[in-house]
Write a structure and sequence with these properties.
Radius of gyration: 11 Å
Strand content: 15-25%
Number of helices: 3
Number of strands: 3
Strand order of the largest sheet: 1-2-3
Structural class: alpha/beta
Largest sheet: 3 strands, parallel
Helix content: 25-40%
Length: 67
């Protein structure tokens, strides 16, 4: 993987499964990660990641929520 240190990524559907694994790999590479998911488990998932990780809980298919 190329140098991602200091970059920021928003990973959708990342409260669990493949999305969480992608977020975890990015965090291990030094990326600031925002876990975006409709599930409130996003906060717990972000807390399990190393480094700087935050959670956004919301339905990203809803335009008003994204704004």
């Amino acid at each position: 993987m190329k140098d991602l240190q200091g970059k920021t990524a928003i990973v959708t559907g990342a409260a669990g499964g493949i999305g969480f694994e992608i977020a975890a790999r990015l965090a291990a590479e030094g990326v600031r990660v925002c876990i975006a998911d409709i599930a409130t488990a996003a906060e717990d998932a972000a807390a399990r990641l190393p480094g700087e990780a935050t959670a956004f809980i919301g339905d990203l298919s809803d335009e008003a929520t994204v704004r």
